Amino acid sequence: MQPEGFRDLAHLGSVELYTAVPEETRDFFVDLMAMKEVHREGDSIYVHAWDDYEAYTVKITGREQAGIGRTYLRASSPDALSRRVAAVEAAGLGDGWRDTEYGLGPVFHCRDTDGHELGLYFETKRYVPTEEHRPSLKNQASRFPGRGANVRRLDHLNFLAADVPAASDFMFGTLGARATERIVTDAGETAAIWYSISDKSYDVVYTSDWLGARGRLHHVAFATDTREDILRAADVFLEAGIHIETGPHKHAIQQTFFLYVWEPGGNRIELCNAGARLMLAPDWETITWTQAERAKGQAWGLKTIESFHTHGTPVIT
Amino acid sequence: MQPEGFRDLAHLGSVELYTAVPEETRDFFVDLMAMKEVHREGDSIYVHAWDDYEAYTVKITGREQAGIGRTYLRASSPDALSRRVAAVEAAGLGDGWRDTEYGLGPVFHCRDTDGHELGLYFETKRYVPTEEHRPSLKNQASRFPGRGANVRRLDHLNFLAADVPAASDFMFGTLGARATERIVTDAGETAAIWYSISDKSYDVVYTSDWLGARGRLHHVAFATDTREDILRAADVFLEAGIHIETGPHKHAIQQTFFLYVWEPGGNRIELCNAGARLMLAPDWETITWTQAERAKGQAWGLKTIESFHTHGTPVIT
Amino acid sequence: MQPEGFRDLAHLGSVELYTAVPEETRDFFVDLMAMKEVHREGDSIYVHAWDDYEAYTVKITGREQAGIGRTYLRASSPDALSRRVAAVEAAGLGDGWRDTEYGLGPVFHCRDTDGHELGLYFETKRYVPTEEHRPSLKNQASRFPGRGANVRRLDHLNFLAADVPAASDFMFGTLGARATERIVTDAGETAAIWYSISDKSYDVVYTSDWLGARGRLHHVAFATDTREDILRAADVFLEAGIHIETGPHKHAIQQTFFLYVWEPGGNRIELCNAGARLMLAPDWETITWTQAERAKGQAWGLKTIESFHTHGTPVIT
Amino acid sequence: MQPEGFRDLAHLGSVELYTAVPEETRDFFVDLMAMKEVHREGDSIYVHAWDDYEAYTVKITGREQAGIGRTYLRASSPDALSRRVAAVEAAGLGDGWRDTEYGLGPVFHCRDTDGHELGLYFETKRYVPTEEHRPSLKNQASRFPGRGANVRRLDHLNFLAADVPAASDFMFGTLGARATERIVTDAGETAAIWYSISDKSYDVVYTSDWLGARGRLHHVAFATDTREDILRAADVFLEAGIHIETGPHKHAIQQTFFLYVWEPGGNRIELCNAGARLMLAPDWETITWTQAERAKGQAWGLKTIESFHTHGTPVIT
Lengths: 317, 317, 317, 317
Description:
The structure is a homotetramer.
Chain A: E1 9-19, H1 22-32, E2 36-41, E3 44-48, E4 58-62, E5 67-75, H2 78-90, E6 94-98, E7 107-111, E8 117-121, E9 153-161, H3 164-174, E10 178-184, E11 190-196, E12 204-208, E13 217-223, H4 227-240, E14 243-250, E15 257-262, E16 268-273, E17 287-290, H5 291-295
Parallel strand pairs in A: 1-4, 5-8, 9-12, 10-17, 13-16
Antiparallel strand pairs in A: 1-5, 2-3, 3-4, 6-7, 7-8, 9-13, 10-11, 11-12, 14-15, 15-16
């Protein structure tokens, strides 16, 4: 079902990751994911994926513990932004406007019901390539790197949440996102739910936090152009000594071809490829997977790896 | 720039192709493109691509000459449909409602300024797979065929038009599509222009008809999941004696990986793959390619094939 | 080290598989592996992979239990054949000449030390395509099928053996094969050993049979042109209800990209792709993997599936 | 037909390229082809492809004009080397032994009938990776680079020759290579002929020099693991401003998937992928392509680019 306010948010803009080893995390994104460093400010290093039209893709911030900082969502227009801000304020989750973010105009700070920090904005600074990064084809943000995982852009976020139904109400009712797929346990609880704010089949996912903690991260995903990019990346990660958690394989849910690794700071990073799959139907009915269906594992029979249910960031002991 | 009414149209639904050899054209779509026949009615055969959620993808209609029949566009909601219908009627291009189309609810018949027939609708019949075509994964419309070109869905249409600026005004001002890229000649004329109604970088293209004819077709394109699908398809077409016109190669404009063939009826068919490229920016600025830039050929240096400027359907002598 | 008689055998020719459901096994090879039926004789159905220059690739023979029948090996010349026959006879493993095999000239029947049946030959009948299977390019055996797993040719065999060292002596000392890689347990026993008779990195493998049985089969492997063929095949097998045992993934040993399934008769079938890897060094030193290295699993961390150590054909209870 | 002495030569070892801009040529091989510099000596820079088991793959030598220096061929054994040296000396084409080549033991210098310099050898120095280049999997020569064209190994050479029949007699009668495919003109002349000394379908090609010059180079080719590597490389070359001459496309002859570029020194470099195609038949009959067949262009219809018949190195004016 299409929520009110669907399309007020245009797409995921950028994400802030916390790490205790910011330089190592930066090297992971630059050397292996094929991003480039574009800015440093305070404790943060900003890196940019080659076809992101905005100023940066990931803000890497030094912190004692890994985890996710603020997630930025771009609205479709100034009016659309106003509507969503009003809805968030009505829900009592607003934290006011800021005008100090690198690469962005005024940003409305807020939280989801689980405490994940969000930033809504419309004004943005286009990425302008330096001579070294100027592409040969002008319909592309910057030069094609052709190395490592070679990710084109940010794809989606998977938040761990203590209260998935509450977070779901917020995504649907307040932000205007539509649920495309979900897992419902035999007890009738939503174990995970996939939200789309675009023609992509998902942009934000909520997964039930097994520890009941709030505001944690399951993973951040980046899109590659081909499945072959992901196979090659697996060899690149192997050589670099990066922990390969599971994959490459294909999810049954959403049918994404995936590879999961842990960046040096401990955050789980996914490489994903959806082929030509899009969720074009305006009235797409949420698909529900049962516990039994989920137990079958991934599309080609791989069992879901145990650490998927034990590792989130920040790590809580 | 984002037009008024952007997002009122959700996506391209289906397309009707005329052919003097309907059974051969049907076999092309079924045997080589991996679609399946789902319906016959009058002079028409309906075929369905494996991940199309609607009842059919291409309607093949027997006619003396090849060419394009009606193109169906699905609206985002009943209200959105009403708004676009009102705009089309205001432009004097409406032909009234019909309720007799296979697989569709009420369809508003109309034309673009060049005479290409269009149909706007919201109500649609979901594809329901027979036992033979039921997929293993329920988030997919029908069984993965894994043969030939294995196209997932309809991707875009390229219309030849006598008056590209008029057609452009219609697309932008009446249908609410945004122009993402275009070619402007040294004389200042728009030789071709790419329109998007979705997050895809284009759904409908207008190319100047070198003969000044109206209502003709340059090509219809179908999306594959990978570039490898297109390479494999080239061998499949070679074995089947299908005319391979040009490719596989990569366009500079829109960066699409492509292969062009002529189906047995003579209509030009493209296989295309965009990788993970999407046009997520709500305020994307139209990119303009000059005549000189266009003369450089495709992305990797292949010259544009001469028959691209001499072959359209119906063929006019 | 290069054995005496290396290159006397040119390549693996064909293989006979036993199955209790020959028609279903035949359909697996034809519908999913993209072979074609070329001959029937007695209880056997002969199928041919699209770029096999010989008359057939797999002989499917109805039997009460699954397993492997005779494996055919082509010699490099009549003289080379004589040399290998003499060596086999000297080892007391010869069973004499036959001249009744479909598609082959005189065949010398023999056994390895474990009892697997072999056939050595030089004279062979080239595959001559029917009109329907005639390829467009004359340097290819038959028409490119472009469907399913689309395997090009037979790649290798993995025999289970009660006594791997004895079988190894036979391969090296009698047949002139070179060992390219092997697993040696902490107890100093060879758990598995990979033999090459060509520039491929392996053609025949011996794996220790956990039940101490003789003459059983671990798997038969077929080569695809790309890793993408294997990813697509995984979806094809999923749709067809074929048991996918493990993969797609990449072996650490030999670095093969693999997918294992069980054909309807129960025999384990591998799809494999080696990329551009060849064993060109004439003096390649056998690489030894320790038990600890083996325990790390496959190249990208997948653990070796348990059924690899419990399922062989014939199944013994 | 299998020549006498077939298998006395095991494989192509390495090749020397002349260039007026050795540092730029070096950067092409290191930055774009993913090799690494391993040695410098005199006017030469040695670079190594990631899965070459020998000390180096290409020797880049500064010279006034581009072209090919010495081509090194490894024999299968000391005895095999003696046999080929005796045959070359009998043909009057020997130039005596040298023991000063980097990475090689004693090398027998000689020429083909057209004057291309060759070096035959058996003793070789294995590539020993530095810590930085040590691979994770020990059955691989050095670390997987995962960047640019990412070529695994040298694949083949295409020599231009004034007298192709004479060079062919030398390859077949003296070096023991087998001809797998050839082009014969309507006048009965061999325009090009492909020779194999291994299980690969070709290692050395002779093409008729349109200027009747001697000792020139058409191209040197390097193998990638996948076709996707070649597609990605095309984008990498585009960004780097390298001249892309033709491709990616598929040859009809030998069915190689190809891309041709000119390195900064002007030598034509091919990226090639053969899929799983091997020439396993010991008695493969040479396939002959007529002038008319050749005129059809490449496998998928691309016409052979004009500069294929006008550009060789050294460039002669």
